[in-house]
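From the methods appendix. Each design record in this collection lists the tokenized structure first, followed by the designed amino acid sequence. Records were kept in a plain field format so they could be parsed without special tools. The example shown here is representative of the layout used throughout.

RECORD:
FOLD TOKENS (199 positions):
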């Protein structure tokens, strides 16, 4: 039985379709939108439609762009000889927050996942190979997550890049800064030992 008018129920259902939004949160968001003044509600709706219409993929790195090159590919001071491969546009934002990386990116828009029917043709791998084939790239950094799918994707792409003679590296991982050894799992400790550096 529906407790609210059909348009409100439909709005709640749409919010519930968003990742990480449960039924109660969806309902709270729907009520919040209803309380907005009409101009603000229209601005909210316009922002959604404008983003949907105007956000595209950068023709070079496949990151999100407002048409044409993304700001990183358009920046002349970035090091074009290094490409950092990430799974998702949000990973670019995470890398940029560290303010340590000054090269270019390539966004795959996912990782290989046979269980979810995601294969190589579903990812932006071919544009990466085309970029490397043009020359000028000396290193490709694989920055996919250190889980099964991320590792599989990194190894698959590394194998494809081997004939081009570029250096393929993987982000180091292990014990997080501020972490304690007693709380680290066996796989994390093993990776930390493998990736140890001389002081």
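DESIGN:
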């Amino acid at each position: 039985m529906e407790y609210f008018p059909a348009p409100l129920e439909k709005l709640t259902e749409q919010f519930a379709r968003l990742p990480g939004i449960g039924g109660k949160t969806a309902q709270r968001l729907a009520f919040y939108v209803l309380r907005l003044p009409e101009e603000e509600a229209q601005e909210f709706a316009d922002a959604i439609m404008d983003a949907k219409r105007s956000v595209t993929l950068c023709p070079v790195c496949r990151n999100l762009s407002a048409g044409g090159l993304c700001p990183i590919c358009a920046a002349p001071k970035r090091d074009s000889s290094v490409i950092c491969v990430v799974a998702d546009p949000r990973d670019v934002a995470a890398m940029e927050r560290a303010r340590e990386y000054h090269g270019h990116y390539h966004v795959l828009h996912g990782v290989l996942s046979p269980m979810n029917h995601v294969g190589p043709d579903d990812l932006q791998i071919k544009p990466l190979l085309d970029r490397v084939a043009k020359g000028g790239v000396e290193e490709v950094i694989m920055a996919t997550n250190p889980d099964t799918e991320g590792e599989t994707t990194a190894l698959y792409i590394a194998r494809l890049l081997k004939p081009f003679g570029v250096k393929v590296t993987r982000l180091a991982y292990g014990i997080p800064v501020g972490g304690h050894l007693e709380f680290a799992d066996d796989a994390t400790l093993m990776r930390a030992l493998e990736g140890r550096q001389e002081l």
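APPENDIX NOTE: The first helix runs from residue 6 to 16.
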